[in-house]
Amino acid sequence: MLIPWLLLGLAGDCFAKIYEDVSDLPGLDYDFVIVGAGAAGNVVANRLTENPSFSVLVLEAGVSNEGVIDSIVPFFWRNLSAGPNIYEWNYTTTPQVGLNNRSIPYSRAHILGGCTSHNTMIYTRGSAEDYNRWADVAKDPGWSWDSLLPYFFKNEKWTPPADNHDTRGEFNPAVHSTHGINSVSLSGSRWPIFENQVIQTTREFPKEFPFNLDYNSGEPLGVGWLQSTIGGGKRSSSATSYLGPKFIQRPNLHVLLHAQVSRLVRPQTTKGVVTFGGVEFSQGGSLFTAKATKEMILSAGSIGTPAILLHSGVGDKKALTALGITSVLDLPSVGQNATDQPATFNAWSWSVNSTQTLDPIERNATLFNEAYAQWNATHTGPFTNFGATHIAWTRLDANSTIFETVTDPAAGPKTPHIEILLVWPWFREFHYLWDDYAHSDQSARIPSTPPLIDPGFLATDFDLFAARESIKRAFRFVEAPVWKDYIIAPTVNLLNMSTDALDEFIRNITSSAGHMTSTAAMSAKDASYGVVNPDLLVKGARGLRIIDASIIPFIPSAHTQAATGGPDTSDYLAHRGTAL
């Protein structure tokens, strides 16, 4: 039976055994070499080094997160992914047919902590049905919701919000843990007028938008208070938590920055099983090889991991041979089945009859500086938030016409198709299309620099149908009587558009949620497809494991950071590692 992973974290701002230069390392021979210091990689490094007899090296291509104020202040998250910068890989997709052939930016973190250091910090686990389907496909009950929940608890440290307001009635303590490592909390500053409007909507439209005390209970449908990976008014990432001061000073844990892994080297095949002799990485224009006596663990993400495998000769034999790459292990599923969630960010807004927003702060330098000074002094105030107060999770109607020709792709009847983020700061409701089921066979399929990324956005009838319906749901939400004197008008009345015009609008503004999964997907041990077995060992290999979002066979109905760090193989590796 398999065990899980964990995600994000927070702890402190100072680090001891994080190296900038390979020459400062005591050597390059370790028991475990982990590629990627992101959502799962840092968790596994932390858990493994609980055993003082294990030595662990983590190789991270990005820069340090220390002192990066945009990664620390929750409200500044947008700055990290605004245009090309050193904290991003600066990827773009291939032209997307469903987006009118647009190539769009594809955000991936290039910083210690990975995407946990620059995402929107939203903490959502998904539905119990998501994980039970995963367990069914893997033929391993260890990946079911009930089996993974203890590992979510081991990861999570439920933390009071920055303003210490009374949170009774805003979450269910029974489905959370206060003893984990990664901080999770509710909103740290209040916007009572907007918040009251949202909650009143659940009373006026209880069937369409019922109140959900806690969407992380495994049953997310409804409207609930937003939970975020924030603690003490600061971002909680896997770098600030699992590599915090009391952990990073372990003598058996070393983290090397600016180390870009290109491939696995020195393959040997014995009785049909492949082993690799090391991990090749570059720094400062030179190549180095790190060796692992027990395991090499790939945690480079859904783009980085398959790219490394393909460059190592692990992938579709015919495709690799055609590119002049010697095939070492024929696994056609590597780099295939990329799954992501198309999103409509800031696609529309409403003007409102209220000044209780962040709009004055953003327009007035004096007010902005006052809010920043408050955060600096006490880690309180409006900058302790990402910007949303609630999430509305909803499903398409069971009698929707799309289901006459398409089987419902959701994991079950309690799993949402659509997410609407309810955001106050800029006089707008922030709609976020949650269509988890756009598939492609192209992501990272061809080893290239940069890799080819093709999520296949809006490529199916279901995608576009769900997009249209999600817009209708957003507009329906503000038709509740409570909004009558609050909302003045939408900036663009999308409901007055024809279907063709609305489709064109959707294709022109849809982007990525940045939640790619499944490019090195798990399958049952006896399955002829897939990349890893339920224990996350690469099929046909020994001493090679993958622990990032690429192994998730079906994307959860959630932001993927919790699924990537909440139930990983960290404890399998750490506490059962002596058997490896």
Q: What is the end-to-end distance?
A: 14 Å
* Mean of residue pLDDT values: 89
CATH topology: FAD/NAD(P)-binding domain
Query: So how many helices?
Result: 16
**Share of helix, binned:** 10-25%
CATH class: Alpha Beta
| Helix-and-strand structural type | alpha/beta
Number of strands: 28
CATH architecture: 3-Layer(bba) Sandwich
- Sheet with the most strands, sense and barrel status: 8 strands, mixed
**Shape annotation:** globular
Q: Could you state the CATH homologous superfamily? A: FAD/NAD(P)-binding domain
Number of domains: 1
Portion in strands: 15-25%
Poorly predicted regions are 1-16, 425-446, 572-580
- Whole-number radius of gyration? 23 Å
Binding site for FAD: 261
Family: Belongs to the GMC oxidoreductase family.
Cofactor: FAD
Protein name: GMC oxidoreductase
Q: What does the model show?
A:
This is GMC oxidoreductase. Keywords: FAD, Flavoprotein, Signal. Its cofactor is FAD. Belongs to the GMC oxidoreductase family. Pfam families: GMC_oxred_C, GMC_oxred_N. The chain is of the alpha/beta class and 580 residues long. It has one domain: FAD/NAD(P)-binding domain, CATH 3.50.50.60. It has 16 helices and 28 strands. Strands 1, 2, 3, 11, 12, 15, 16 and 28 form an 8-stranded mixed beta sheet that branches. The protein has a 4-stranded antiparallel beta sheet with strand order 8-22-23-24, with helices on one face. A two-stranded antiparallel ribbon has the order 4-5. The longest helix has 17 residues. The two termini are 14 Å apart.
